[in-house]
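Z., the sequence and structure:
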Amino acid sequence: MYDALGTKKRLVIIFIIAATVAIIAACLTARVGRARHALACAEPVELIPYDGKVEHIFTHELIFDTAKAFSPANSVRDCFDKDHLTAAEFKALLGELYENDYVLVSLDGVVGGAQPRVPRGKKPLVMSFDDMTYDTVNRGCIDKIIISDGELCDYTKNAEPQITRERENVTVLESFIEQHPDFSPSGARATLCVNGYNGILGYRCTPNCKVSEQRRADDTAECRKLVSELKRRGYTFASHTYYHTYFNGCAASTIEKDCAAWQKYIEPIVGKTRALCFPAGEHNAKSEKMDIFKRYGFDTFLCVGDFIGTDYERASKDAEYIYRLPFDGTALRLYEKAYARLADTRAIYDGTRYRPFSFKGGYHK
């Protein structure tokens, strides 16, 4: 009997040791896998000039918890449904783009008439993410982007697990490129078009944030580290205006105030940028208000629409106007045919949205 008990103990110990070894092996395999992907991405690929239309698409922050985001108790659920993708939709979108032979190129690589270089048979795609403020806490979006164990991750306090790499555009994109390094043959990533009125990337690093001075200082320090890592990986930054200022309805003095705040509080964190993204795409290239943006160093303007620009914009010598296609709930439902060259919007539509794909109406009650 005692010998049997001793044998059982030994078997338990052996089992524990074997399980531990298996876990360690799995971790090492994962790290080796990531290393192999990095090596694959580093392998030389022949890039040739692309003579054709360069597609530009953009998204806002993603929704990962559709039950919260589209709940009747969420006062902004119509906005979420109209202007956002879910994490599942963004993952599916990346898969569609990949299957349709698109590869990422940087915004910097196509401005000023520059001709992007891509592998033979591939088509260039510029991607950007707007807002990136994360101030809708506990409503189905993440709290912030962080660095964890050397990886870009998304963090949500009231979620389980709190840290993942599958809930937000940046982290989903990073995970996708690890699996498909040829999606970014030149190391390009997205352009992050950030505001400033409530910090950026989930960090309350500006005076308008209602936090203590110590919290602001701590968040600023952490945000600088994150921005440095994002840039190292190929992300670039653009202004989405400090206050999310709509061009058409504001005075010149409002734009002046906005640009000054961006220059004072955001530029020291993300660095100087020539690119500015108009909220909702609102702008008037002929307006004298445009001269204020130019005076602050902006000369690359991101607009909205499947459009090549007005004659005036295309003839401009001191500015470039780039039109982008939004990917959000509205676009998925309304632009199925127009977007077919990029993705099958019906196929990627998230069935957990509270409105069906067939919904074509407005959003005002």
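Confidence is low (pLDDT under 50) at residues 23-41. The chain is about 35% helix and 15% strand.

Let me know what you think.
H.
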